[in-house]
Design goal:
This protein has helices spanning about 5-30, 35-50, 55, 80-105, 110-130, 135-155, 160-190, 195-200, 205, 210-225, 235-240, 245-255, 260-270, 275-295, 300-320, 325-355, 370-385, 390-405, 410-435, 455-470, 475-490, 505-525, 525-540, 545-565, 570-590, 605-625, 630-650, 650-675, 685-710, 720-730, 735-745, 745-765, 790-795, and strands at about 65-70, 75. It is mostly helical. Among the domains are: about 270-525, no CATH class; about 570-715, Up-down Bundle (Four Helix Bundle (Hemerythrin (Met), subunit A)), CATH 1.20.120. It has a two-stranded antiparallel ribbon with strand order 1-2.
Length: about 800
């Protein structure tokens, strides 16, 4: 059994992050053997989650949690059931062999330690994603997978193709992540629940909500981008620029299935509706066909496998979208089978490239004698991928055919799509297993030979596991597939798997048809590849090129907007600032109809009227001032008038602050002006004056309107009561204003002081700028020459 207490699962999820910290040190200590001790981390994580299998198989679930940000209702909570446990086992189990494989594949690489760190960070992110219960926690780990995959795809950062692929993956999956965040926030707003386990307990809350369509589209946006569904499929193939261990792990066995995991997880609360059963099968089916056709076009082993991964993800989405129990059983089986055979085949492709020097199947052949262990692993994994007995891929194909054949609507279309897609995947499986290893021995760039155990341990174990899982089908169904299906459909379902079909029917006939069609297509593979190449050339434009065009358009738009709003002129900045301020004040007031209701002229005393008259006189003086210096001095009149008003209304502290600010402002501006041209004021066109005057009136009217409206509302004394009660008790001060500034708003006050200090230093620097002298052409020093104004002062003018 796993360690007791919620801390154990937390430690299991966070363990890879700890390994990421120590990985570079381990590489320095153990050199080329660092992979062995580092692989112990995912191995122990695997054993921890394996301890839950027995209890979960009997219908139990676990929800360990620790407070993370309790003030905001965010907990580091986890939800372990059949689905999350299966994913956790795949992530940690396959991850163990990926770490070993990385040790052999990148042996001697100068950044080997950094690579291990990135891999462990991704591993922890995926573990957190699939086990998270809290929606915000899930989203945090979701985005961490995008960030860490960006680092891994762009690991070879000196290559332009790697940098582009990393950026593309980050933009596409990051954009989908923002949509998913919006969906989660909407779900939390509609249901009042932030935990997945609570949502699953109230299945129909979202389906009955008027906002169901919006929630579904936002969730699908996150899932489709992450799992490379059409038309977002292009980023996954480009991600093959990453080192092969990354391809084998992130983009085959784990990360790209994050979207599929989310759809399976949300099936009980969002599934089985018309929108769900229409959108998912449609996009999944299109992705399946497109992925396999694009795979046929390739000659690079990794690209062939990458596009079949796209196709497999489409198949999983299509099956999940049917909301049929049998189809979902097929999806759960295929999820397990695909992780095993695709992880193995990617490592095989990497080993061939590492030892033979190329991945191009047109340049490979006859490697069977030089690499017998790798060839055996490739055959076993390819047989499972092709859906042939006695492998887990065969059982998965039988169940998924049974599920879609019995669909109440669209059965024929779904079945035809699945048969064609599976037949084409058989073609790629045969090509990957046979073309590099059989036939006449090719003249490869490197002398091919079997790699070290670090390179073939993973492919051998994963491919054999695919065989063993089928041979013990009943146990596989009882402990892994059954609990997973129960989690997806939202109720307990007992699964009895059999390697040998219990009856002859449509599933078996469809399997035979798939094999026959696949063999026929494989025999015409070269012609089929040429046809696809010509077709794609004729089409020309595609989503990958469209991505570049979209990014280019965004850059051009951003440049144009920046040049408009950041023109380099202070006057433009001031005008834009005041326009936005006026809009922010007046537009909401207008839309809400929150205009002041009881406007009346207050009953001023004679001296209050006198202060108001002085302020208006100062305003007029600013407008008619003939020099800048006069305008600055006149500008201080309003500030001093406001300071007097504060004093008359019983705010001496505020009044004193206003006096100081106005005095310093006038003095500093006057000092600066002595360094500038103090000729008469600028002559401006009447149109400019009217435009600026209208903006000034709008801002003033907006502030006056908001303030008058606020004063009409009932006074809320809670803040006043709070400060009165706690000023002395907490801050030990009786002057409430001082306590607010120094204690309750201490950081804010420090920031204001810092701004004033920096401003003062900048002004001092401007004042101390020495004028430049212009030497005479003859070189004779006849005294001071005409001075040039510094560029900073010239810009200020």
């Amino acid at each position: 059994m796993p360690l007791s207490g919620p801390e154990a699962t937390v430690y299991a999820v966070l363990a890879p992050f700890a390994a990421a910290v120590i990985a570079p040190l381990m590489v320095r200590l153990f050199k080329h053997n660092a992979a062995w001790p580092l692989a112990l981390v995912p191995a122990f994580v695997f054993l921890h989650f394996a301890g839950f299998v027995g209890a979960i198989a009997h219908g139990e679930t676990f929800t360990p949690s620790l407070d993370w940000a309790p003030t905001y209702g965010v907990t580091l909570s986890f939800y372990l059931d059949g689905l999350s446990t299966l994913f956790a086992l795949l992530i940690s189990g396959i991850g163990t062999f990926i770490i070993l494989y990385s040790g052999g594949y990148l042996k001697g690489h100068p950044h080997h330690g950094r690579f291990f760190s990135f891999m462990f960070m991704f591993m922890g992110s995926m573990l957190g994603l699939v086990t998270a219960d809290n929606l915000i926690t899930l989203f945090v780990f979701w985005e961490l997978t995008s960030i860490t995959s960006f680092l891994l795809i762009g690991f070879d950062h000196l290559r332009r193709a790697s940098r582009r692929a990393a950026l593309q993956a980050l933009v596409v999956t990051g954009g989908g992540g923002l949509a998913l965040l919006a969906g989660f926030l909407l779900i939390m707003s509609l249901t009042g629940e932030a935990n997945m386990s609570a949502l699953l307990a109230g299945e129909d809350i979202l389906r009955q909500s008027p906002a169901y369509a919006a929630v579904l589209i936002l969730v699908l946006g996150g899932a489709f981008t992450k799992s490379a569904q059409f038309p977002f499929h292009f980023w996954l193939a480009n991600a093959m620029e990453a080192p092969t261990p990354v391809s084998a792990y992130l983009h085959s066995a784990t990360m790209v299935k994050a979207g599929v995991y989310l759809l399976m997880r949300m099936q009980p609360v969002l599934g089985d509706t018309l929108l769900w059963t229409t959108i998912l099968p449609l996009f999944g089916g299109v992705t399946l066909i497109f992925g396999t056709l694009l795979a046929v076009r390739q000659t690079d082993l990794k690209l062939m496998l990458a596009y079949t991964t796209v196709a497999s993800l489409g198949l999983l989405v299509m099956l999940t979208g049917t909301s049929l129990d049998k189809a979902i059983e097929g999806a759960a089986l295929y999820l397990l089978a695909h992780s095993l055979f695709k992880g193995a085949l990617f490592m095989v492709a990497g080993t061939v490239d590492h030892e033979a020097g190329t991945r191009d199947i047109t340049r490979l052949g006859g490697l069977r004698g030089a690499m017998p262990i790798t060839f055996a692993a490739a055959c076993l994994a390819s047989l499972s991928m092709a859906g042939l007995p006695p492998f887990i891929g065969f059982i998965a194909k039988e169940y998924l055919y049974e599920g879609i054949w019995e669909a109440p609507s669209g059965a024929l279309a779904l079945t035809a799509t699945a048969v064609i897609g599976n037949a084409l995947m058989l073609v790629i499986a045969a090509a990957v297993a046979l073309r590099p290893f059989t036939g006449q021995k090719a003249d490869t760039p490197k002398h091919a030979h079997e790699g070290p155990i670090l390179l073939y341990a993973g492919p051998v174990v994963l491919s054999v596991t695919g065989l063993v899982a089928a041979l013990v089908a009943h146990t596989t169904g009882e402990y892994f597939v059954g609990p997973t299906v129960s989690s997806i459909i939202g109720r307990f379902e007992e699964i009895n798997l059999h390697l040998v079909p219990t009856h002859i029917g449509a599933p078996l006939y469809l399997s035979v048809a798939t094999i026959v069609l696949g063999v026929l297509l494989y025999l015409r593979l070269d012609a089929l590849r040429a046809m696809m190449a010509n077709t794609l050339t004729a089409i020309g434009w595609g989503p990958d090129k469209g991505f570049d065009q979209a990014i280019s358009a965004i850059v051009r738009l951003a440049t144009a907007v920046t040049r408009f709003v950041q023109a380099g002129k202070l006057q433009v900045y001031m005008v834009m600032t005041f326009i936005i301020t006026a809009l922010a004040l007046l537009v909401p007031t207008y839309l809400a109809g929150a205009w002041p209701q009881n406007f009346s002229v207050p009953q001023f005393r004679f001296y209050e009227w006198a202060i108001l008259v002085i302020a208006v006189a100062g305003l007029i003086a600013v407008l008619i001032a003939k020099t800048r210096l006069t305008a600055i001095v006149s500008l201080g009149i309003q500030g001093f008038a406001v300071a007097v008003i504060f004093m008359l209304f019983g705010a001496p502290d505020l009044s004193f602050t206003q006096f100081m600010v106005e005095t310093l402002s006038v003095v500093i501006l006057a000092l600066v002006m002595t360094r500038l041209n103090l000729t008469p004021r600028d002559h401006r066109k009447l149109g400019d004056q009217l435009f600026d005057g209208a903006i000034a009136i709008a801002v003033g009217f907006g502030f006056a309107t908001v303030l008058m409206r606020i004063t009409e509302l009932p006074f809320d004394p809670r803040l006043s009561v709070f400060f009165s009660e706690y000023a002395n008790a907490i801050a030990h001060g009786r002057n409430i204003v001082n306590v607010i500034l120094v204690d309750f708003r201490g950081i804010d006050t420090l920031g204001e002081i810092s701004v004033v200090m920096v401003t003062g230093l900048a002004v001092l620097a401007l004042i101390r700028v020495r004028p430049k002298r212009r030497p005479l052409e003859t070189g004779e020093d006849t005294g001071p020459a005409k001075t040039e104004e510094p560029k900073e002062l010239e810009a200020a003018k």
